[in-house]
Amino acid sequence: MRICELVVVLLLLAITTLPATAQDKKALKLFSEAQTDYQNHDEEEALAKLKEVIHRDSEFVDAYILLADVYNEMDSTELQIATLKQAISIDQAKFPKAYYVLGNACYRIGDYRGAQKAYLQFLKTGTAGKLEEKTQKQIAACEAASELVQNGVPFEPEILEGCINSEGDEYWPSLTIDGKTMIFTRLVSTGNQVNELMPRFQEDFYQAQLVDGNWCDCEPLNSINTKENEGAQSVSADGKLIFFTACNQPGGYGSCDIYFTRMIGGEWTKPENAGSPVCSTAWESQPSISANGEYLYFVSNRKGGRGGMDIWRCRLKGFSMSGKPDWGNLENLGESVNTPGNESSPFIHADGVTLYFSSDSWPGLGGNDLFISRLTNDTVWSRPLNLGYPINSYKDEQGMIVDASGQNAYYSSDRTGSDGTDIYRFELNENTRPIPVSYVKGIVYDRTDGTPLHAEIELFDVDQDQLVARSESSPDKGEFVMCLPLGKEYAFNISKKGYLFFSENYALTQVRELTNPFSVEIGLEPVKVGNSTILRNVFFDTDSYELLPQSKAELDKLVQFMTQNAGVAIEIGGHTDNVGSAEYNLALSENRAKAVYQYLLNEGLGVDRLTYKGYGFDQPVVSNDTDEGRSQNRRTEFKIIDVSK
């Protein structure tokens, strides 16, 4: 939790006269000049003069206090601490607030016991005043941080092998759902100079491929990169959509906005502003697109939030014909996640319910710590859990992502022994892992001529009768990726106007090998007399013809198809395996077909557009010699019998 530093210069404002103990006129003159240098932000000059002052008068406590503040401005915290301790040892009563500043400095470097001791000393002075409540909170923060350190978690980060990490800085990794493509930000030289000593750098996007465990083929995304900075990107599950941050762009809404680009025809489109309500006149950054494409999470300091930077999300309903995002409701994640401080770097896992983010205000170890929160229903998030020490430290931790398996996390760090900031991988502890996710990947095409089809893809939770994801196959190649969180049974539908819809069932109630996802090629049949499709998500109990509740999503899809194709008439066909007599199976299949027929009638479809028939086991699609074969032969189909009603 980052502390708002009470800089020691505030203490110096109380100094109206120079100390009577300082008899060296040269020291007095140098001290006065150092004050002026500090106020003019010339820390180097102030530092040199203050060292000379202390050399001349080692008891000049005011000089130590100002020197400590100079060290603070120069991010030399350990020197600041040593100097404050020296000032206190000379005269602990003169500037009692020095204890408070000392506590803050100790906290910043992870010396929680030293910080707590300094805070307690400050309270003992009786001068805390308005700072008493804040000091008490900092004491509690020290206790919480110490407990996190005492209960440390396993943490063995490994630097990524291959071409990703270089002598420069690499950070902000993002992964496709298959874990084979990583897009990251690299700080590269522009070839120009800021001044004689400092080269000019800019942030660009790079892409790498995972081959045999190594990252290779690192290439800049030149069609996206510009002469300005691009960073903090998030790639969609299928790798065909990138949201990212760019600042001070022509036509932007605010200082920093969120932009997007789509892969169409093998090329990235020209980046465009994501538009309102995602972008505003405030600051927006650090997007994270959900794997199902339904929500974009991002950070903003706009009005209506809880404090500084908050995490928001906006529903993405799709893209218009012109390629613009069609945004729905915008919502702040609320006080379960956001605080009066700053929350940043959100990452929504592919399971759709597990959020990782950074915060400087939830109990932690200092700076920005990494936390996890889970969506318990559509809008309520669980209390954030700190990922623990040493994943978190007194430094800033940000920009972590987690792969589909839920086991491996990726983040950037400037750890000792590396060339600048590099990207690392580590194994998450079990209590901070998300739900593992598999996926189905494939293409959709016209079965008659092989033409790729731009089709709608829907995924339903069978038990909850709830749409959990909606996507589209790519217009040029018919390709798609759909994430499947483990532990549920799904109805999977692909539909396109003028075609019969495709139905599949994915039962992931048992653990599935995540390295073996579903790969399919789906040929859609045109709406034509004689063509048929299997309803793989219509369910009956054994020896029963009563429809199970889990059939509703599929049957409603059939109602939708019939409504959209008003001239179509269909036959519902029931089929069984060969267990039992022919007479028994014929009756069972007919009764099952009739149950579907009756459902459609009850939904308002006309009797002149519907008929049903039982076929028993006379039309198997595969052999009945195995359990798997018999399972496939037990099915319900619908067949087009007329298109001119």
Automatic annotation (TrEMBL):
Keywords: Cell outer membrane, Membrane, Signal. The keyword Membrane applies. GO terms for cellular component: cell outer membrane. PROSITE patterns: OMPA_1 (PS01068), OMPA_2 (PS51123). Pfam families: OmpA, PD40, TPR_8. Its main location: membrane. Residues 527-644 form the OmpA-like domain. Coiled coil: none annotated. It is found in: Cell outer membrane. It comes from the Bacteria. Residues 1-22 form the signal peptide. This is Outer membrane protein OmpA-like peptidoglycan-associated protein. It comes from Mangrovibacterium diazotrophicum.
